[in-house]
Structure formats: structure tokens, C-alpha cells
């Protein structure tokens, strides 16, 4: 690619740096020479090299100052932020008096005021087809999803003939939905508080459960806990009554049930014999499949007898009801966050809530996700579930949360792992850019776990001495049991802790946040410690309980890579990783 000197200078490159720039022949060489350039020059060169247009580069460089400003929460008044033409392009300008008052009065985060032009366009444009937004951790996918919800709810509010319509903003877990709702309350409380509310925020599991309850569905949907144990017992009863085909273990039967039969919605032997089992590690011939089908039928029959249902059953039942009465729902749109965790039945349900025909009447589907962060094993190809994005797939590339140093480390954990784009293609973080710089992640090798724990406590004390708020620090663990251990150790060192911040109200409480990596999804902290990354603890031994063969084993390792990637990308500025003995093979110390 040739870019003229004049053009580079117009984008902000210093003239005296041009000779050095002209020696660079590849992106790798540019990355290696980062230290040699002025930071702004580097940012411009990088953006040009990965194909940004001049306008995008200008927006990016103008943007970085303002996002920094917002993240540091300086006291600048809102009207001084919108004086320049450049900032007008890059920020979200309040459209109502209420929005403006909130922006001026409240302690707002960056995302409530700023939107990058790419984000703004995505959230505020009208589309004829479903839209998919991909982007690495911290690129503002959730922010875009929230602004999209606000935009669509604004349109409903503005048109009295649409009164009663609403936007369904959904995500994978109830915890993530809670966080979303708390943030949305800052952006557009009037839509949540309206009667009836113009935006409904709920996990898809719960949505399906409520929907079926209103339709007098008799079966209890089993998510976890005591009912889950009853299903485990059911499997044991079924195994007593059936001989397993040669070479097939109980673990394999259960994995086949979850990952093929339930995930793909297979309901009869004929379909099961024909279904492609892509990704499964153990071959099953016709004969074995027929034998397994008897086991599956028996398990299903017993489950129905006990009036229990698995989440995929619930999705399927809801889809069936909706297919018979599609027009009755109030939803003008479905917006999906964390879409990488949604399986086939979930996408089919979303399609059933907004059937294709309804798109002609202005109803819409908007999906955001990042398969690098898939921490559960469900996956799907959206177009195979009837959600055809017809080229409406967009990528967000700028990471507003983590420093370049933390981002690079987090990406190294998932490097080489093939990652999908939720629609049958592949995805990559090659063009991911972090907007800020900071210290390298601290990698700490210890002799024992006790030493690790006292190291984490000393680290927290030193951050406190540097005036970092305890509530801005998190310790993230792979296992629930470790959360308690960490809390005990920190308490002994005189450090106040809090198990989990489920919503905004609690973020005001003091105390270091100690939680599992899974529950940290959707959150962010100034400083994050991740202990217990030794070869014997990460992944934890019991993680492999459901592995039926080598392919499952690999899958679980990939899942734990993603989990560590998620945990590391929760850190905005400081990341500390530790292990005792040998480190996990998932990191390069
Ligand atoms: N245009 C922007 N200007 C300033 N800050 C922004 C902007 N967009 C997003 N942010 C901030 O970046 C951080 C990450 O945003 P968000 O949580 O939406 O990203 P994400 O892509 O959903 O992340 P993840 O996939 O890791 O959950 C948040 O602190 C958000 O406020």
C-alpha cells in the first residue's frame, strides 16, 4: 500500500519521522518498532496499515483524547466537550432535555457520552435485515447494544400508534442481564420505567421460562441446583436399564445427548441417523446410533413423566407455540448481547420472536458477540437458524477498556485457537487496537498457594497505598471454592472484600471484588489479580468430567483459554497473574 507523505502528515504524523516510516515494510515491523515513534504517529500508522480510511483515522485520533478524558472522569462540563466539529462526530449528543440533564449532573462513564462514529452508525441506523456486530473484548459491543435499544425505544415513544411495543434486550445469563439493566438505567431510565416498559432486559433462559409459564406449560425447566441433580439421577436409572454399545461410555452418551440431540433439536431416530456430528471426536455408525436412540428416548420419556425439561426443550416448546401465534408478541426488536454463548435453539427462538416476515414491517434483530470469549460449549451458525445477516456483519476494532500491554497478553492466551464468526466463518483479533498504554502484566511464580495468597494481599495493600479504591480491584478465580479461600486470606490480612457486585448499587460499596471468572463477564476493574494458574489447578481437574474423548478434552481446554482471556480483559490498567509450581500450559510465562 502506498500512502503519500503529505497524506500521512495531514493525518498527524510528524514530518521528521517520515524517513524512519519509509523503512517499514510490514505490520509486524511496525509493531516491533512501536517504541521508536511518537504514540500518535504509531496509532495513525497502525490504523492506516490495517485499512482505515482517512476519516476513520481522524475520528480515531480525535477520539482517543476524549475517551481518556471520559475514563478519567475529569470535571469538564458537557458543553465544553461538544464544542468542536471533531468531537461532534465522535460523541453521542443527547437528544432530549432529560438526557442532557443526566449527562451534566451524573457521574457518567465514557460510554454514556461518547460513541465512536462506527459505534454510533451501527446503533442509530435503520436496517432491513438482521445485523451482527463482532468485536474483541472491550470494543463497546454492549454499549452499542444498549444505544441500539435506546434508539429503538425512542422511536416507539415518538409514535403514539406504536404504544405498547417494546424492545427485548437479551443476553445469556441472568447475572449479565442484571448488569445490563443497571447500565441501561443510567442511559435511558424513562424507557425502563414507562408503563408498560419500552425495553425489557432479561436472559433468554428466563424469557423462555416466563413465556412458557404464561402459556401454562406444565414442565419445570431445569437450569441448575436440586432439579439438575434429579436429572443426573434419571441418567443413572436409564443406564441401569440399558447396555451401552461397545466403545461407548456413559459420559459419551450424555455428551451426545447435550451436544447433538438437544443442541440440534433432534426429535426422532430418522433425523438422528442423518444429522452431521461435526466436531464430535468419536465416530458412531448407524447401528450404534440406533442403540443410543433407545437410551435417549427412554431418558426423554422419564424426564417428561417427572414434568421436567432442559433449557433446549423449553426453547423448542416456545418456538412451537410461537410458530402457531407469531403476531401476538409486543416486540418491535430483539437485541442480543453475548451471542457467542447462544446455541441453535436459542437463535431459532429469537427468529421465532421476530419472524422473517415481520422484518418487512420494520421489526428487527440486532446481535453482538465475540467467539473468542465463548466460555460455554454451545455454538451455532446463525444463518442455519433462519437469521440471515446478508452481509450486515460489522466489526468493532478499538478497545476502550484495556491497555495495549494487557490486551496483547490476553490475546496471546487464545492465539492459534480457531475462532468462528457466529455464522460459519472465522474471526480474528488481528486488527484489534487498544487505545491506551500501561504496565506489562505482572507474572508471579510462587512456591506454594499460601505464598500466592499473601502475594495477592501485599499487592492489594500496595495498590491501596497508591490510592486505588478497593472496589476498583478484583481477584478472579476459576472455581467457586477458591473465591472463599481468597476471601478468607484477604480478611486475615485486614482487607475488606465483597463476593460479587451484581448491580450498580453494590458497586458503591467498598471492598475488593472476589468472584469467579465466569461471573466477572460483563464487568471491568482498574486492577485484576488472577491467582492459581498452576498446571494442576488450571483448568481445574473436575473441568474434564464431561469429556467423552480427546476432542471433548481439546474443547474444554479451548473453553478455559477463552475463560482466561475473558478474565484478563476485565482489567483496565493493571493485571497480576500468579501460580505455584509449574504454570498452566495455557500461558507462556
Ligand atoms: N466510544 C467510547 N468511548 C469511550 N469509552 C467507550 C466507548 N465505547 C465503549 N467504551 C467503554 O469501553 C468499555 C468496554 O465497553 P463494553 O463493555 O461495551 O465492551 P464489550 O465489547 O461489550 O466488552 P466485552 O466483550 O469484554 O464484554 C466500557 O468501559 C465502555 O464504557
From TrEMBL:
Catalytic activity: Couples ATP hydrolysis with the unwinding of duplex DNA by translocating in the 3'-5' direction; ATP + H2O = ADP + phosphate + H(+)
GO molecular-function term, one example from the UniProt record: helicase activity
Residue numbers binding ATP: 135-142
Ranges where the UvrD-like helicase ATP-binding domain occurs: 114-403
Pfam families in the record: UvrD-helicase (PF00580), UvrD_C (PF13361)
Keywords assigned: ATP-binding, Helicase, Hydrolase, Isomerase, Nucleotide-binding
EC number(s) given by UniProt: 5.6.2.4
Source species, domain of life: Bacteria
InterPro entries in UniProt: DNA_helicase_UvrD-like_C, DNA_helicase_UvrD/REP, P-loop_NTPase, UvrD-like_ATP-bd
Stored PANTHER family: DNA 3'-5' HELICASE (PTHR11070:SF45), UVRD / RECB / PCRA DNA HELICASE FAMILY MEMBER (PTHR11070)
Name listed for the protein in its UniProt record: DNA 3'-5' helicase
Amino acid at each position: 500500500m502506498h500512502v503519500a507523505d503529505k497524506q500521512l502528515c495531514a493525518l498527524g504524523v510528524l514530518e521528521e519521522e517520515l524517513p524512519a516510516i519509509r523503512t517499514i515494510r510490514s505490520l509486524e515491523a511496525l509493531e516491533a518498532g512501536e517504541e521508536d515513534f511518537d504514540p500518535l504517529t504509531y496509532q495513525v500508522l497502525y490504523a492506516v496499515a490495517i485499512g482505515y480510511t482517512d476519516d476513520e483515522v481522524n475520528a480515531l485520533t480525535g477520539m482517543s483524547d476524549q475517551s481518556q478524558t471520559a475514563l478519567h472522569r475529569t470535571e469538564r462540563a458537557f458543553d465544553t466537550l461538544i464544542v468542536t466539529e471533531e468531537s461532534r462526530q465522535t460523541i453521542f449528543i443527547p437528544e432530549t432535555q432529560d438526557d442532557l440533564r443526566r449527562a451534566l449532573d451524573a457521574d457518567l462513564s465514557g460510554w454514556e457520552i461518547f460513541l465512536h462514529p462506527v459505534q454510533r452508525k451501527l446503533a442509530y441506523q435503520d436496517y432491513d435485515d438482521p445485523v451482527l456486530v463482532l468485536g474483541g473484548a472491550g470494543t463497546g459491543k454492549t454499549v452499542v447494544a444498549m444505544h441500539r435499544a435506546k434508539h429503538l425505544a425512542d422511536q416507539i415513544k415518538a409514535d403514539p400508534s406504536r404504544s405498547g411495543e417494546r424492545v427485548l434486550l437479551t443476553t445469556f445469563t441472568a447475572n449479565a442481564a442484571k448488569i445490563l439493566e443497571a447500565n441501561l438505567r443510567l442511559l435511558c431510565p424513562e424507557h425502563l420505567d414507562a408503563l408498560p416498559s419500552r425495553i425489557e432486559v432479561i436472559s433468554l433462559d428466563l424469557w423462555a421460562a416466563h413465556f412458557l409459564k404464561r402459556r401454562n406449560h406444565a414442565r419445570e425447566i431445569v437450569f441448575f441446583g436440586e432439579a439438575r441433580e434429579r436429572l443426573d439421577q434419571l441418567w443413572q436409572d436409564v443406564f441401569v436399564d440399558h447396555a451401552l454399545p461397545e466403545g461407548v461410555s456413559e459420559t459419551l452418551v450424555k455428551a451426545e445427548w447435550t451436544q447433538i440431540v438437544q443442541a440440534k433439536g433432534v426429535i426422532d431416530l430418522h433425523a438422528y441417523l442423518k444429522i452431521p456430528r461435526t466436531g464430535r471426536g468419536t465416530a458412531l455408525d448407524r447401528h450404534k446410533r440406533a442403540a443410543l436412540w433407545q437410551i435417549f428416548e427412554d431418558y426423554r420419556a422419564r424426564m417428561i413423566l417427572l414434568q421436567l425439561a432442559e433449557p433446549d426443550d423449553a426453547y423448542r416448546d416456545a418456538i412451537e407455540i410461537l410458530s402457531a401465534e407469531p403476531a401476538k408478541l409486543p416486540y418491535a426488536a430483539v437485541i442480543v448481547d453475548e451471542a457467542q454463548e447462544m446455541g441453535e435453539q436459542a437463535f431459532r427462538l429469537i427468529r421465532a420472536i421476530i419472524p422473517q416476515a415481520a422484518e418487512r414491517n420494520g421489526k428487527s434483530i440486532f446481535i453482538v458477540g465475540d467467539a473468542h470469549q465463548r466460555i460455554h460449549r454451545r455454538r451455532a451458525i446463525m444463518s442455519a437458524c433462519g437469521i440471515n445477516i446478508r452481509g450486515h456483519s460489522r466489526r468493532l476494532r478499538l478497545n476502550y477498556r484495556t491497555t495495549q500491554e494487557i490486551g496483547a497478553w490476553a490475546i496471546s492466551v487464545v492465539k492459534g485457537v480457531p475462532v468462528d464468526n457466529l455464522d460459519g466463518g472465522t474471526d480474528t483479533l488481528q486488527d484489534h487496537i487498544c487505545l491506551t498504554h500501561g504496565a506489562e502484566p505482572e507474572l508471579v511464580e510462587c512456591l506454594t498457594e499460601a505464598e500466592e495468597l499473601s502475594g495477592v494481599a501485599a499487592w492489594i495493600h500496595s495498590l491501596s497505598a497508591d490510592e486505588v479504591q478497593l472496589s476498583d480491584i478484583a481477584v478472579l478465580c476459576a472455581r467457586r471454592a477458591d473465591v472463599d479461600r481468597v476471601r478468607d486470606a484477604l480478611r486475615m490480612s485486614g482487607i475488606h472484600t465483597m463476593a460479587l457486585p451484581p448491580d450498580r448499587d453494590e458497586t458503591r460499596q467498598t471492598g475488593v471484588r472476589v468472584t469467579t471468572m465466569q461471573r466477572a463477564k460483563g464487568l471491568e476493574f482498574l486492577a485484576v489479580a488472577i491467582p492459581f494458574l498452576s498446571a494442576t489447578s488450571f483448568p481445574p481437574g473436575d473441568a474434564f468430567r464431561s469429556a467423552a474423548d480427546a476432542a471433548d478434552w481439546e474443547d474444554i481446554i479451548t473453553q478455559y483459554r477463552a475463560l482466561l482471556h475473558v478474565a484478563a480483559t476485565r482489567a483496565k490498567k493493571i493485571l497480576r497473574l500468579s501460580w505455584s509450581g509449574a504454570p498452566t500450559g495455557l500461558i507462556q510465562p
